[in-house]
């Protein structure tokens, strides 16, 4: 007797291969099973077969998918989930042409969120992050990453990391936590980025001991941290047993992407200005390129990361929201899928692989999330859509009908709609 049987699935997205992350041509492959069914037991996928075969199965609960699309739960591998305040007033500045890095230089941007985050209590941050997390889940996400980086001092960084851990322990979403201490140089350091970096490095032992993060991250950018500083921080993190990530080549082509590939980073993120050499290096490495086209869109830029070229060159590409209060204020990963189709020229198959299997690998969750396979967590979405092409096609709305996390209902739409 199974716990739940999902019957009458119009299209079931299965992996074309059990390996990952998928690179280049492998990103074009999706195994789509029509007229399918699946069974769940103990929070895991226990059986996958045809709808006819499922007639012989017994389950405590039976769900009729109504001929619709069922996919793995989406994975969002780059978010800044935990923060205080909001920055709606920056929008007018951006419209007036003030560049993102100039706002930061003047003490706004990331630094204004730092102030609000420092002022908020742990409970306030928890409630706010939980609100955003529920919205993220409603869009079909069952596993995500969350970065610190708005505390920029010991106590406030630990406060952010503890909030992410508590949210993970609450069990509704798997949250991979990343320590992004070197996100900006706070005003208290008077521009002394080396001194600040030393202080962030000195936190690594404590974070490890308290098991507050799996990865570290650094913002490698003009006026923030150099490639040399990024290398120093990443090497120190690796030595302490962390996986490493980097915000690389978002605005200026400094070479953070080449560094990520050379150092064996789990992911290099943004990559809007990544060089030809960076793309070659990534293709030859195990580093996943996490592209954030929602950020390029929200910052009003014309040039997007060269996703098409990256895939054609053999890079493992993933997509994320970059949800944060400044450069990409949306919890909607489905919207990012549409922007990836329109601006990165990615195909529907590539997009699905980018927000499932490759995203899971970018945050070290490839073994348990990102694909529907017997033995893996029963994290899945029943979509109010007839096929997998439909989600990036019909943009800006929420197509989730039922989001399941380890076999439990995480979010459900009240009524099903006609396409
Ligand atoms: N670019 C650096 N960090 C974030 C933005 C943070 C912010 O503006 O608050 C990003 O990934 O886009
Ligand atoms: Zn980011």
TrEMBL record:
Location in the cell: Cytoplasm
Entries under CDD domains matching the protein: Imidazolone-5PH
Binding-site list for 4-imidazolone-5-propanoate: 87, 150, 183, 250, 327
Positions bound to Fe(3+): 78, 80, 247, 322
Residues that coordinate or bind Zn(2+): 78, 80, 247, 322
Domain of life of the source: Bacteria
Pfam families cross-referenced by the UniProt entry: Amidohydro_1
Amidohydrolase-related domain ranges (all copies): 70-385
Cofactor requirement: Zn(2+); Fe(3+)
Group of enzyme by EC: hydrolase
EC number of the protein: 3.5.2.7
Residue sites binding N-formimidoyl-L-glutamate per the record: 150, 324, 326
Keyword line: Cytoplasm, Histidine metabolism, Hydrolase, Iron, Metal-binding, Zinc
Protein's pathway: Amino-acid degradation; L-histidine degradation into L-glutamate; N-formimidoyl-L-glutamate from L-histidine: step 3/3
GO terms assigned for molecular function: imidazolonepropionase activity
Keyword Zinc: yes
Cofactor annotation remark: Binds 1 zinc or iron ion per subunit.
InterPro entries found in the cross-reference section: Amidohydro-rel, HutI, Metal-dep_hydrolase_composite, Metal_Hydrolase
Catalytic activity as recorded in UniProt: 4-imidazolone-5-propanoate + H2O = N-formimidoyl-L-glutamate
Classification via NCBIfam families: hutI (TIGR01224)
Family: Belongs to the metallo-dependent hydrolases superfamily. HutI family.
Role of this protein: Catalyzes the hydrolytic cleavage of the carbon-nitrogen bond in imidazolone-5-propanoate to yield N-formimidoyl-L-glutamate. It is the third step in the universal histidine degradation pathway.
Name of protein: Imidazolonepropionase
Gene: hutI
């Amino acid at each position: 007797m199974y716990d739940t049987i999902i019957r009458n699935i119009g299209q079931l997205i299965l992996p074309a291969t059990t390996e990952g992350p998928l690179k280049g041509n492998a990103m074009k492959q999706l195994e789509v099973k029509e007229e399918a069914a699946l069974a769940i037991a103990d929070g895991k996928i226990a059986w996958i077969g045809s709808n006819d075969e499922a007639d012989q199965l017994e389950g405590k609960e039976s769900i009729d998918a109504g001929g619709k699309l069922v996919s793995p739960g989406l994975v969002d591998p780059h978010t800044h989930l935990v923060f205080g305040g909001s920055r709606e007033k920056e929008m007018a500045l951006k419209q007036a042409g003030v560049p993102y890095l100039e706002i930061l230089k003047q003490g706004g941007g990331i630094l204004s969120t730092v102030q609000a985050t420092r002022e908020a209590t742990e409970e306030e941050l928890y409630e706010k992050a939980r609100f955003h997390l529920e919205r993220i889940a409603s869009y079909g996400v069952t596993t995500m990453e969350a970065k610190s980086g708005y505390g920029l001092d010991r106590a406030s960084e630990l406060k952010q990391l503890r909030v992410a851990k508590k949210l993970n322990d609450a069990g509704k979403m798997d949250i991979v936590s990343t320590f992004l201490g070197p996100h900006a140089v706070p005003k208290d350091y008077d521009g002394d980025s080396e001194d600040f970096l030393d202080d962030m490095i000195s936190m690594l032992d404590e974070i490890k001991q308290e098991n507050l993060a799996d990865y570290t991250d650094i913002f490698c950018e003009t006026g923030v941290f150099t490639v040399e500083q990024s290398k120093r921080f990443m090497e120190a993190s690796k030595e302490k047993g962390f996986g490493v990530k980097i915000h690389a080549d978002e605005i200026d082509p400094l070479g953070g992407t080449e560094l990520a590939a050379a150092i064996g980073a789990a992911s290099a993120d943004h990559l809007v200005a990544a060089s030809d050499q960076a793309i070659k290096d990534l293709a030859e490495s195990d580093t996943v390129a996490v592209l954030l086209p929602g950020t390029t869109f929200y910052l009003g830029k014309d040039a997007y990361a060269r996703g098409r070229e990256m895939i054609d060159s053999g890079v493992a590409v993933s997509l994320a929201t970059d949800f944060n209060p400044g450069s990409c204020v949306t919890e909607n990963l489905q919207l990012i899928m549409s922007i990836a189709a329109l601006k990165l020229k990615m195909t529907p198959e590539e997009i699905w692989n980018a927000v499932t299997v490759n995203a899971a690998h970018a945050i070290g969750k490839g073994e348990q999330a990102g694909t529907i396979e017997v033995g893996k967590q029963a994290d899945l979405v029943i979509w109010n859509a007839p096929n997998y092409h439909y989600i990036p096609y019909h943009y800006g709305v929420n197509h989730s009908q039922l989001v399941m996390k380890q076999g439990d209902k995480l979010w459900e739409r009240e009524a099903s709609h006609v396409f």
